[in-house]
Amino acid sequence: MFRTDDTPVHTPVPTPGRLRRWAARAALPAVALLGLSLAGSPVAAETAEAAEEIPEAAAFEEYVAIGDSFTAGPLVVQQKAPLLGCMQSDANYPKMLAEQLGITELVDVSCSGAVVEDLYEAQFDDQPPQLDALTADTDLVTIGIGGNDFGFADVMIECATRSITSPNGSPCADHYGDELDERIEELRGDIAGVFEDVAERSPDATVMFVGYLQILPESDGCWPTVPISSGDVPYLDQAQIDLNAMLEEESAAHGATFVDVFERGYDSCQPSDVRWVEGVIPENAAAPVHPNRAGMEATTAFVSDALGVPVP
Question: Where would I find the SGNH hydrolase-type esterase domain in this sequence (predicted)?
């Protein structure tokens, strides 16, 4: 989400690419009827035993994960080798989700520091534009982008610096005023364009836009552990709520599902064994002000629940 380096649930509609798999499953009742006609015979027993051994097919076959560091998971356990520049973790939610759903073909191109432009242009020499990973056969796409375009990293640094002069005041809100609202609206068109381009490249895909986990509490804060003035905590918390709300609105407008992961009680001011997002000084394996492993596990559960598909 940071360059320094919420919820209408859309039930996925079976697409042409997935109808073949549905047809295969639909054939099972016929097999069951045949088994009834052979009831009591050795063949029936052997057929039933063999059927029990056939694993359930995954609901999706080709999954592409697009996003920034809140998707990539910098410093969450080991980093994925060949995307070391992107600081992509082997324990981020796309990999957890693929494993949970039995998806064998995952293309995770999420990259720390990514902005919308990096979906269209190479962020690093060895990292093609993220949207290039999409194909006509892609049937599941998760997207998590926009935080760096909004500039949350710079905002947090600015607010932290100003908090020193007034820990109990609101120097950050006084400095930015309505500017953060304006940034969110300016970003809306870019987010809409991402949805349109994903639909063009992967027309049969189920598209999920994953929001941002709660970073700050609703009020008060925990200065100086997270150096944001107490009066600025609700201001920045509201800015994140507004950003997620815009992302949700654009998701609905483009027929995608917005996955609301903003749940109170797991912010960076919580104890280390509770929080989903680390503070300025991480106590769990994660980059500062980024999701830890518990946050990635929670996000996986939110996405899986929104998809509403059985786990093989």
Answer: 65-298
Question: What is the enclosing helix (H) or strand (E) of 276?
Answer: none
Q: 86 near 72, Cβ under 8 Å?
A: yes
| pTM, entire model | 0.80
Six-digit token string for 159: 């607010």
Given 163, 170, 290, 304, the catalytic residue:
290
C-alpha separations of 310 from 27, 258, 304 in Å: 19, 19, 9
Q: What is the pLDDT of residues 76-112, one digit of tens each?
A: 987 666 566 899 999 999 999 999 999 999 999 999 9
Extents of the domains making up the chain: 13-54, 60-307
Q: How many CA atoms lie within 13 A of 308 on its CB side?
A: 9
CB atoms closer than 10 angstroms to residue 137: 12
- Given a cut of 50, whether residue 16 has pLDDT beyond it is no
How far is Cα 251 from Cα 8, in angstroms, rounded to an integer?
A: 9
Q: Give the count of beta carbons closer than 10 Å to the beta carbon of residue 101.
A: 21
Q: How many other C-beta atoms lie within 10 A of the C-beta of residue 249?
A: 15
69: annotated active-site residue? yes
| Out of 4-13, 46-55, 112-121, 299-308, least confident range | 4-13
pLDDT digits (tens, 9 = 90+) for 29-66: 332 322 333 334 454 555 455 445 555 667 899 999 99
Query: Could you name the CATH architecture of 60-307?
Result: 3-Layer(aba) Sandwich (3.40)
Given 10, 69, 268, 272, the catalytic residue? 69
DSSP E strands in the chain: the ranges are 62-67, 105-108, 140-144, 206-210, 257-259
